[in-house]
Amino acid sequence: MIKLKRVILHNFLSYKDAELPLENQGLTLISGINNSSNNYVSNGSGKTSLLNSITYAIYGQTIDGLSGDAVINKEVGTDCSVILDFYVGSTSYQIQRYRKGKHNNRNKLKLLANGSEITLATNAKTQVEIDKIFSIPFDTYVNTVVYGQGNIPVFSQATDKGKKEILESLANTSVYAKARDISSSKEREHQSTLAMLKREKDLKTSQLEQTRGYQQRAQEKYKQDLAYQETLESMIVKTSHKLSSENAELEKLNNDLEQAQEDAKENHLELPSGVPDISSYEQKLANLTYVVTDGKSKIKDYFKQYKDLDIQKVCPTCGQPVTNQHKEQEREKLTDLIKNASKQLADNIKSLKDLQPIVEKKRNEVASLSSRSQEIYKHNQLLDSKVDKISYSIKEKNNEISSLNSTLILYKQQKDKELTVQDFSKDIKALEESLDSLDIQVEAEEKKVEDYGILANKVFSRQGIQSMAMDLIIPYLNEHTNYYLAKLSGSVIQVYMSTQTLNANNTLADKFDLQVKNASGADSYQSCSAGEKKRIDIAISFAIQDLLNSNSETGINIAIYDECFDGLDAVGTEKVIEIMQEKQKNIGTVFVITHNELLKPLFENVITVEKDKNGISRVVK
């Protein structure tokens, strides 16, 4: 059984510091006084927040879903912590949950067992360990230990899936769910192994077919090699004859080469020497020709300047106006220039005429020697060409003979080579044996996949053992619910829960069914009045709590009821309190939150929560 001992709050929600004992507190009313607003008397004083600290310590969230920094006291804004002490069996545990905590506890979650820290590497891993120890899932907790807090719908209003998850938790079918998950995992594992084996089998089959192909091609090649060896003898004879013929032709070519070399040596002519150099004459002739042409151009220019003196008004040399005296001076100057240039031109023309026949003679001598050299070169080239042609033929013939010798050697080697067939029989046998082994493994894996599939999808499914376990707890719930309804409504209302629903076509659907029999006329939960629904909800809650506490692993020493009297008349309220008084004798502590001050005399213990003008709540007594 789980025994909660105490919870300590620091800067949690509206509280700065508070401590609440949880063990053997009897039937305790938690009332409130709100001094922070004139609009409220007890609402908003922090009653629910005080008990929300228990849920937050265990699950890291409140019933309303607050978590993280949202639980930090807004007035302080830092250093929030909730510490819960509890027992499971003989082991004492402590959960320490911090937000923006001091001393390296910024957002730390710590877990202690018998005073020693057993916190894991991360908050998430530590939370998993807490869930294992506490063994009550959050959704089950808010429908069994707690009633009325937060936005979690009560059991009768939960979805089909939600109802089943709560009952599965209470029926302790988690072991079957775990077995189903393990079976599913094993099924997937063997499916993966089966797929791998099939791929390996396909690969081996392909390799076997390929190896058999290699064997067949090796045998075909052996037959081809045998047939080829039979033709090699005639090919050797033919190549030998060809080689003899080529050697004879080579000998003839060598003789022809020797004769051609002798002819070339005897008939080879020498090129004439001492070819005259006429370049200096050609250069001199070109220079004189240029000088004569330039002299004629200068004289022509002087004559033009002489004529222009009669029409020019400004001297082109000095830029001054031309006078008659100036003209005469220029005419005398130009006349001297023309005389000197004419004399020089005459001398150059004479030198040019004297040089031209000399150059022409030199040119003819060079042309004659060049023509003779070309004739000698052609003559020698014909002799050398014949030698080169025969030499090339000898080279080609040697290459051909070398190739024939190589071919002949190769033919002889191939003829003498011992033929063998590449044997793949061992490889084929090994592959066949491997395939036989794989067939056995595939068959075994297929059987395992089938077996684990049956376990996962049938035996351990919700339609299998889990369904049977659920069917075992439904009578318990019906009996206890109707027991409490008899106290609350005088046997006017009865409920019957079932894991299956009857369809309109008289078939059963795997859906949770809640039937209501009401002597006042209502025939379903939805058609009941608000007060009747409240009685049904509370009765189911009491029954579920009984089922929870009937299990030594999930039984807990506390129950919390938050504003559970809304919608109930005075008789209904008194009946509920009577049941609570009965239940607290078995579990030890029942906390009731209500704003109805008239109910105080019905409780043996009262804890008052007061919120001051600054919005800080504290436990007064």
Write the layout of secondary structure elements.
Blueprint: E1 2-10, E2 17-21, E3 26-34, H1 47-59, E4 80-88, E5 91-99, E6 109-113, E7 116-117, H2 123-134, H3 138-144, E8 146-147, H4 160-170, H5 174-267, H6 279-308, H7 324-416, H8 425-459, H9 465-489, E9 493-498, E10 501-502, E11 508-509, E12 513-518, H10 530-549, E13 558-562, H11 570-587, E14 589-593, E15 605-611, E16 617-619
Parallel strand pairs: 3-14, 3-15, 8-13, 13-14
Antiparallel strand pairs: 1-2, 1-4, 4-5, 5-6, 6-7, 9-12, 10-11, 15-16
Helix pairs in contact: 5-7, 5-8, 6-7, 9-10, 9-11
Structure annotation, total helices? 11
DSSP, total strands: 16
Uncertain segments are none
Judged by helices, strands and strand pairing, the structural class is: alpha/beta
What is the distance, rounded to the nearest whole angstrom, between the alpha carbons of the first and last residues?
A: 29 Å
Nearest-integer average pLDDT: 87
Task: Give structural notes.
- This protein is an alpha/beta fold and 621 residues long.
- 58% of the residues lie in helices and 14% in strands.
- It has eleven helices and 16 strands.
- Helix 9 packs across helix 10.
- It is elongated and about 165 Å long.
- The two termini are 29 Å apart.
